[in-house]
Amino acid sequence: MAGNIRVIEVIPYNAEWKNEFEKIKIKINGIIGDLVIRIEHVGSTSVEGLFAKPIIDIDVVISNYDCLPEIIKRLTKVGYQHEGDLGVEGREAFSRAFKDDFMEYHLYVCPKDGKGYLEHIAFRDYLRNNEVARNEYGVLKCKLAETYCFDRDGYCNAKTDFVRDILKKSIYR
User: Fold this and answer.
1) Distance (Å, whole) CA 124 – CA 135
2) Looking at residue 5, what is its pLDDT?
3) Is the separation of the CB atoms in 116 and 90 below 8 Å?
4) DSSP result, the chain
């Protein structure tokens, strides 16, 4: 890694990712658990057998935005920074402003009926239950990681058609 340039790394599934998620979930639950419905492991690391960037994606599910100010307050108090929706409807992003013993992770707070959360779950569950799609996505991610190894936006944009296709087959039928 030179400066702020990060290499996109896609690696084979690692069963340890489940354990890492559980550790992070316990920490988050201890901070805001009384305000949330559930804490979900989403993204590629949540799909057994799928190649992934070694970054845990976490959706903290809330009933509605009424409790968001308190969540922001509590998370900020322990060192998280609220980043807004980062252009994704129905998802509030938080980053760590501190080092901890967990692997890298992305933390999102989402209303239970929010587009971001519903799409994360639909995509995850489709891949968990469809080996052909899971394998196709893994191959695509590996190729794109080579092509766009220093271009995170290019990598993400190049996955868009595949993701949309899966969402059409699952949530937007």
Assistant:
1) 13
2) 64
3) yes
4) -BTTB-----B---THHHHHHHHHHHHHHHHHGGG-SEEEEESGGGSTT--B-S-EEEEEEESSGGGHHHHHHHHHHTTEEEEETTT-TT-EEEEESS--SSPPEEEEEEETT-HHHHHHHHHHHHHHH-HHHHHHHHHHHHHHHHHTTT-HHHHHHHHHHHHHHHHHHTTT-
Mean pLDDT, the chain, whole residue set? 94
Closest CA to 131 of 10, 41, 13: 13
Segment 82-118, tens digit of pLDDT? 999 998 888 999 999 888 889 999 999 999 999 999 9
| Residue 93 and residue 72 in contact, taking contact as beta carbons nearer than 8 Å | no
Q: What is the mean pLDDT of residues 41-46?
A: 98
